[in-house]
């Protein structure tokens, strides 16, 4: 196992120092908000389709954006207080920001390694990237095993988040221990959707965000759903090319969602959904674009430290060969209807008001 940085950064060759500086700047440039991150993953993937996680990360990041705009959309503005919604956004944004500033530098170092035809992964410690990933990328460089690299990136990103976000006392107090997180869980609002074609979708649901094991297993299932069936995979990629990510659910379902609020202020809420369709004459559900819903946030530097302590995580890298059909549309439709009913009844008790 490779250890920490062998020499101080100032003692590295000039070429390495310049490269690290460029990588930090490039990462910062794209790590502005969920839209810029999501776009950067896809752009990288288009040049390097062998890095499967880049596309998986792009699609999961799209869902992160949907969750962020939901907090300013039709239903959650009725169910959660402003303070709760701000706490929830801070939590989602921090996680999204952290993953990008850890994963994207790995991609840029890989790209540079290809360019000079020599692995540069010894520079990972200078970017606070886990020793686990240094070993894995060196293995990938020799063996080109896309499955192991993808699983390792899933394990790495979720483990990286564990202490910094999930176990963070502030988020535990403001998010995990409050009603809204239980509400999300009850309403299965942790559905990750991969749209394709005309209003089709596959995906998976996460019920226990607080469990590292569950999040890693979800990542494995999502990868299987995306990559096991070639025809579905190609259709999802095609959809991603044709639909720029805005954060609005209108991106994949313009028949039901609109990024313009068609509502009249003060008017009593009327049920609009039935069997996943709008009722006759009903207005669309408001789902704003991310960049109009939330201002960009400046993040504090990522907490230092390597999560990797236990070799047993390599068990996650073993292929289980299970197949998942990814059917999620019916479940997602039921979720929307339950959310609408909850918004109508306003039954959610706000804990922070």
Describe the structure.
There is one protein chain. The chain is mainly alpha-helical. The chain contains 13 helices and six strands. Strand 4 and strand 5 form a beta hairpin.
Shape: globular
Number of DSSP strands? 6
Q: Mind summarizing the main beta sheet?
A: 2 strands, antiparallel
Our count of helices gives 13
The stretches of 5 or more residues where confidence is low (pLDDT under 50) are: 347-353
Query: Which structural class matches the secondary elements?
Result: mainly alpha
Cα radius of gyration in angstroms? 21 Å
What is the rounded distance between the termini?
A: 50 Å
Task: Determine the mean pLDDT.
Answer: 90
Can you list the strand order of the major beta sheet?
1-2
- Strand share of the residues? 5-15%
Succession of helices and strands: HHHHHHHHHEEHHEEEEHH
Question: Helicity, in percent?
Answer: 40-55%
């Amino acid at each position: 196992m490779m250890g920490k940085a062998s020499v101080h950064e100032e003692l590295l060759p000039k070429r390495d120092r310049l490269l690290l500086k460029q990588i930090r700047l490039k990462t910062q440039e794209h790590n502005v908000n969920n839209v810029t991150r999501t776009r950067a993953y896809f752009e990288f993937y288009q040049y390097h389709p062998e890095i499967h996680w880049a596309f998986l990360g792009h699609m999961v990041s799209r869902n992160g954006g949907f969750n962020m705009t939901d907090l300013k959309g039709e239903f959650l503005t009725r169910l959660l207080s402003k303070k709760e919604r701000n706490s929830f956004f801070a939590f989602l944004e921090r996680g999204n920001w952290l993953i990008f500033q850890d994963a994207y530098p790995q991609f840029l170092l890989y790209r540079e390694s290809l360019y000079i035809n020599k692995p540069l992964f010894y520079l990972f410690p200078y970017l606070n990237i886990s020793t686990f990933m240094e070993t894995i990328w060196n293995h990938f460089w020799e063996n080109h095993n896309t499955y192991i690299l993808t699983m390792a990136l899933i394990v790495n990103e979720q483990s990286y988040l564990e202490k910094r976000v999930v176990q963070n006392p502030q988020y535990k107090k403001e998010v995990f221990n409050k009603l809204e997180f239980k509400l999300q869980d009850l309403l299965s609002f942790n559905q990750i959707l991969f749209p394709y074609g005309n209003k089709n979708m596959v995906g998976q649901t996460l019920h226990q965000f607080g469990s590292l094991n569950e999040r890693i297993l979800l990542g494995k299932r999502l990868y299987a759903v995306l990559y096991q069936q070639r025809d579905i995979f190609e259709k999802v990629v095609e959809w991603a090319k044709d639909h720029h990510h805005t954060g609005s659910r209108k991106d994949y379902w313009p028949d039901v969602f609109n990024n313009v609020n068609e509502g009249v202020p003060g008017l009593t809420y009327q049920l609009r959904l039935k069997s996943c369709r709008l009722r006759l004459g009903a207005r669309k559900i408001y789902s704003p674009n991310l960049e109009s819903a939330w201002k960009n946030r400046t993040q504090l530097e990522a907490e230092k430290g390597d999560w990797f302590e236990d070799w047993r995580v390599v068990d996650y890298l073993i292929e289980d060969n299970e197949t998942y059909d990814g059917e999620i549309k019916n479940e997602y439709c039921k979720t929307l209807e339950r959310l609408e009913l909850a918004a109508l009844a306003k039954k959610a008790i706000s804990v922070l008001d």
